[in-house]
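Give me the fold.
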Amino acid sequence: MKVLMFGWEFPPHILGGLGTASYGLTKGLAQQSDMDITFCLPKPWGDEDQSFMKIIAMDKVPVVWREPDHNYLCERLGNIMSADTYYDLRNHIYADFNYMQTNDLGCIEFSGRYPDNLQEEINNYSIVAGVVARQQQFDIIHAHDWLTYPAGIHAKQVSGKPLCIHVHATDFDRSRGNVNPTVYAIERNGMDHADCIMCVSELTRQTVITKYGQDPKKCFTMHNAVYPLPQEIQDIVPQKKEGEKVVTFLGRITMQKGPEYFVEAATMVINRSRNIRFCMAGSGDMMNAMIDLVAKRGIADRFHFPGFMKGKQVYECLKASDVYIMPSVSEPFGISPLEAMQCGVPTIISKQSGCAEILDKCIKTDYWDIHAMADAINSICTNNSLYEYLKEEGKKEVDEITWEKVGLRIRKLYDETIEKCK
């Protein structure tokens, strides 16, 4: 089976869970011998793992203007261009693209990140997707998250192939309900055009059905997983100070992740015990506010902000921790608790997270219940039997949640979607 996939980030250059999930999912799918994956990225950096799939750099795909004053593009196939390769994109994208500039090779440039002109990059990406869809051979399209839905739609319109979209999050999660109407429109349009909607949790599936008006029959829960830790990660020796416990929050410091609840719970714990330190690893638009809150609560001497971490740094941080906590207000899934449990770190998660649907060997609290959070932290840090139970049983549980199993479930949906669309 040939799959044309559209993504936005990919390890080792990741800014959030989307890249991590994209890697695990594609590698899990690739374990099937007949799976041929072509993965499109706005701007690959050249050090991505291509041992199990082909990556297309969208910033290296030539596009050619028909006339500077008209909104038309054509694709270049080798050195051959013909009149029938021209097509009108006005109805297939979300904004005027008169601003668009190409380089000397006729390619559109991308930042490879989440720039201030993100909307323009999404539009440009969808344009190049149409070119790619005319050049590649594939059986089905798979678009990851709202950034790539326009690309998936355009590829479907060009090729006539079925479209699967993968909902890793919705704007209801990112904004705590204060939804951006433009983002919502893109999400809704992607869902309306999709033949199959994969949601990273039942929580997300219900949001897609109730908030976006989608047919439940085409919406499927597809939980994330983790990949086995490589030997170099398993060999990391944790750096711990004798007699002290470390409680870690690791993720984007944004309102979706509930960082203020972590600080408030930490304040309650520190007021009871001074041998527990707290680490808020990551970056985000609430970071300065959290630094101010920590200072205001008088716990700055027991609180650390090491900044954004990636790759090996993440696992060094986790292995140095005694407790991991994810107090997310609305978390579509949340891979980081699985990674923590994989490292043998007792974990506390909010009941408002998708991963709570498949994890049992952890402690679950409401995101707003800082008293329950503080009690759970104290219990793990002071009760060695509880600590050892969560450490050992949590790892066993997560080791059974593999991307290969997810890949088999996705393949089944591919087959059913293709058959349905014949």
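The first helix runs from residue 17 to 29.
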